[in-house]
Write a structure and sequence with these properties.
The protein is an alpha+beta fold. It is 41% helix and 10% strand. The protein folds into two domains: 56 residues, Electron transport complex subunit B, putative Fe-S cluster (3-methyladenine DNA Glycosylase II, Chain A, domain 3, Orthogonal Bundle); 175 residues, Alpha-Beta Plaits, CATH 3.30.70. The chain is built from eleven helices and eight strands. The strands form four sheets. The chain has a two-stranded antiparallel sheet. It has a two-stranded antiparallel sheet with strand order 2-3. The chain has a two-stranded antiparallel ribbon with strand order 5-8. Strand 2 and strand 3 form a beta hairpin. Helix 2 packs across helix 3.
Length: 308
Amino acid sequence: MISTIIWTVSIITVLGLLLALALYLVAQRFRVEEDPRIEQVEQVMPGANCGGCGFAGCHAFADAAVKAGNLDSCFCPVGGNETMKKVASILGVEVKEKAPEVAVLRCNGTCEARPRINEYDGSMSCKVKSSLYAGDTLCRFGCLGCGDCVSACEFGGISMDPETRLPVFDPDRCMACGACVKACPKGLIEIRPKGPRGMHLYVSCRNTDKGPAVRKACSSACIGCGICQKTCRQGAVTVVDNVACIDPQKCKLCRECEAMCPTGAIHAVGFPKPLDKEAVKARVLERQKKEREAAAAQAAADNQKKED
């Protein structure tokens, strides 16, 4: 009996050793050599594995960067320009600096501006709520207020305001990784340039309905009136599908569009001083009056020339 056990253990041990040797030989035979620079790049990455770069994680980013041979299509939003400089140094390539970005909420519908018409009593998830109905207000475009974006943010850059029931973004903590953008089923979160010294303007609304319907749903929504577009002298504001958009590349941060907006749908972030809306509005109206007078005088002069 004892000899049988000994033989069994011996045979199993020998088989185990032989199989281990076979696996080792196969692994060596079909081994794929990995570029050592991949590990070097991964070591200088922040290690967030957030997917904000468009890859599955930091290792996938490093692998893609090494194989691409350049960094034109690779950027780590968490590490930013400093991390990319280190990556470029390892790979021996040049990298263009990218302006810092931040996430913003394209919804201005506070509880006061967008009254609730019913109360949701289900799973506190925006994804679940959006799959059931348009929301508990008349605005089918607005924030659902369940905080999926808060849960998605790994950097503590988003919190829910209990009074407005809207998420609040901390520009100092936001890494522009895009996790909140993916988490929002309404597509209300947008990544935009942070702007010089953190100052930027954006339209906090995505409602594409026509003015009367928008006003009924939310008193703070963009109604597509076009006043901001007519006010902007840089051509940075355009109205598309009944909602205004601000081009950050053209915007000069004069805040005239913000002052002229009749519903307060244009938000300013990072400005050191509050806007004196009445003073700016008076300045804009005076300028527009002079422009109309100049245009009328020019038209009269042109008509006089034709008569002569």
